[in-house]
Amino acid sequence: MALPGQGLVASVTEQSPEEIGDLYLDVSEAYLEVGKHIQALPLLTSLVISEKYNLAVVWLRHAECLKALGHMDAAADSYSRVVEKAPQHLEARLSLATLLQQLGRPKEALKALEPMYDSETLAQDSAAAQKELKLLLHRSTLLKTQGQTEGYLDSMISMLSMLLKVRTHTVTRHAVD
């Protein structure tokens, strides 16, 4: 059975993704919205191998599509590309770590949860600090499930330290106001 608009999609794919990549992305996202992952995958693959659309957001859609299709190893590779291109993308890091743990690659899973920000950024940017805390929470949970008690305790201490700094900074700031 032919899908509505299938002829239009076929004519789109005859064009170079370098020239009409936005349309490729729009069509693939429409497919993803209705659960047609198998139809979205070739479009997304064309985009990630292109020069112009080899972007973190496209790799993220590619990873999500692969994951939905059950291609976990390939999805992990795509999530790795997202993290490589956008190191502060928290959700990509968490998804990557979860997949790697499920694939039996615990060391790589922990590596995906390494700190994203330096201490100076964390001291000045509360949004970054919140993201880092969420990352540390996932890292500590992963360390605990892996039986790495010392690493788990180190992560918990880091989290408590960050929480105290954020709280102290907030209290000091309000006292000045």
From TrEMBL:
TPR repeats lie at residues 56-89. InterPro entries: Tfc4/TFIIIC-102/Sfc4, TPR-like_helical_dom_sf, TPR_rpt. GO terms for cellular component: transcription factor TFIIIC complex. Keywords: TPR repeat. Pfam families: TPR_19 (PF14559). One of its GO terms (biological process) is transcription by RNA polymerase III. This is Uncharacterized protein.
